[in-house]
Each structure stands twice: as structure tokens, then as C-alpha cells.
Amino acid sequence: MSASQLIKGGGPKKKEIHHKDFLPNYLPQLVNDIAAARRHPGDPRQQIHAVLDSIAVDLTSNNRASLVARYDRRGAMLLGNWGAELVLFDSLSTEVYGSDWSPPARFRWQHVTIDLVGPRNAVVYAQFLWHQPDGDSTLVSYTGVFAHDGKRWRIRAEHESPSRDDLKKSLCKPDTSAH
Fold first, then answer.
1. 69 inside domain
2. CATH code at 161?
3. Long-range contacts of 86-93 (CB under 8 A, 24+ apart)
4. Which residue range(s) make up the domain with 109?
5. Residue pair 67/59 in contact by the 8 Å Cβ criterion
6. Cβ neighbours of residue 102 under 8 Å, at least 6 residues apart?
7. Whose C-alpha in 12, 102, 124, 179 is 20 to 30 A from the C-alpha of 152?
């Protein structure tokens, strides 16, 4: 018997269920039912979580073509502490993921919140930890606007800002030039 049948009032007709019986006998099924509902493929939040997970894999495996393919075909508004720029889709592979771009050694999303703002639009609020090959890491605040094009969720806009301490480290590097 599933937990949903118990909740709807179904269940054994001949035996009364006591709370001492519920935990060991029915709680595991209830937990599984709740987990299955969260993994439902029709839930846009779960679809976007899957996109974020695959972005993490593509970043660390240096799969630039796959990263570019995740953006909206109209291009994307990219914002950060450096400024803002609308980058056309055809320019993403050179302007964003070109020869100056380096993949992280490790990458991890954290504190992800997905806000559905319409049937085909969502805002992702998160942070990510970007680990450099030298062992240094940067904590970055992230806001992304995702649009569903009828087939998949694509990135329409991104705002990335490193933490204040990480920004200070990158802007205030010690002068190592010879005087």
C-alpha cells in the first residue's frame, strides 16, 4: 500500500493503524512518494535543476559547444561587476567561451532557488563555487533568467558577481613588477 492511499483514507480495512506501526511500516513509502513527486519530469523547477547540474558537468569537462548551446538563440544579456552587454548567440563561442576562457577544476552550485515567473520563464537565484586548477576558489552570486523555447530551458540573461573578498583579491593583487 502506498503512502498516498493511506493519506486518502485507504488502507487496511480490518486492522487499525497505530502510530507505533506507522513509522516502521509506512514512513519509508511516504518518503519515497514525496521524493518521486519532487523528481517528476514535468516540474519546470526540476527540469531547470537538471540543466544546472549539466552546466556544472560541461564547465568542468570544458565542453564549450554544449555550454553555448544552452543560451537563448536571440543571445543573452550578461552582467557583472565589469558591466553589462547583450551578446548575440553567434558570438557566445568567441566572446564568452573563447581562447581567454578557462574551465574550473571543480564547480558546485549552492543555495539554488528557482522562481517561476510564467509558464515559459524562470529566474534562478544561486551561488556557485568556482575552483581554479591552482587550488584557489571564488564564491560567486548568480542570477539567471531562463526561457523555455518549446523544447528546452535556455539562458536569456545572467548576472554574476564574485564575493567582495574575492573581488578585492582580484583587483588588489600585489605589484610584483621590478622597480
1. yes
2. 3.10.450.50
3. 92/68, 93/64, 93/65, 93/68
4. 44-171
5. yes
6. 133
7. 102
For residue 42, what pLDDT band results from cuts at 50, 70 and 90? Answer: confident
Query: Mapping DSSP to helix (H, G, I), strand (E, B) and coil, where does residue 120 land?
Result: coil
Stretch among 20-24, 47-51, 53-57, 80-84 having the lowest mean pLDDT: 20-24
With respect to residue 14, please indicate whether it lies within any of the assigned structural domains. Answer: no
What is the pTM (predicted TM-score) of this model? 0.70
Whether 25 maps to a domain, the answer reads no
Distance CA(7)–CA(91), nearest Å, equals: 54
For residue 30, being part of any structural domain is answered with no
Which triple of cell numbers denotes residue 24?
516502521
Q: How many distinct structural domains can be found in the chain?
A: 1
Smallest Cα–Cα separation from 118: which of 145, 91, 79? 145
